[in-house]
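Give me the fold.
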Amino acid sequence: GNSNAGWNSQPSMAEAGYFNGMVSCSEWTGVALSVLLEEVGLDKKAKWLIAEGADAFAMQVSIPIKKALDDAFLGLYQNGERIRPENGYPVRLVVPGWEGVLNVKWLHRIKLSNRPVMARNETSRYTELQPSGKARMFTFAMEAKSLITSPSAHMLLKQSGLYQITGLAWSGNGKIRKVEVSADDGNSWAEAELQEPVLDRAFTRFRIPWHWNGKPTILKSRATDETGYVQPERQELVKERGRQGFFHYNAIINWHIDSDGFVSHVYDKDATKKTNSNIDSDWD
């Protein structure tokens, strides 16, 4: 899953693109499931739509009928061209804003049911035990998330001076309302500029100028979406959900910059020297 290494007890030392990969944003063209279901006739008793792929895994997923009728569709074109074989040709399911696993490739069967199919990827996977002893299931939507892509892990700031901090933010629940950036481990925040257009459930690029004084510090970003949801700190997420999970990791990412300008991933300020960068003097 995207950023699943964040659940580990020690921070991942991988580059930002590897640690936070397995996420993409495309322009899709296809046929709304609501149109298809209206044409064939929808049984009012149906509560779930079951989609199955033609791959060797025989991928099966369960989607609430409300979502299927809202904005899910059969994807035929990706970024203006027919879907490529590796991406699900000739047709795949697209479920905007929800887990990627639901976007079944090589779709060959759809059926309606009054209960979820409870396939192996819905029971042995994508079901996570919580500290309370209860399990999270069918946690479909991807909540607001952001990360700084430059500077980020394994990069090197060669000298003090002016830099442009850039990154990406997205939310499965709508548009990104704002992204704030901190240059002093969250003691103070400044709102970044969002690159237009800011689209619903799509990548949003943000940027902000920053003057590095050459001293150790921690950079982080925090996204807020149009529902008012605010991206949590890691300790908040772990307290709520424990560390038995593997998916839906959307905690704030901390990049530590040492006095030599080397950037690494840390969980909190206790993992390194205290920062002494003040946002009032560091933002240009």
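The helical segments are 16-19, 33-40, 65-70, 120-123, 234-241, 279-282.
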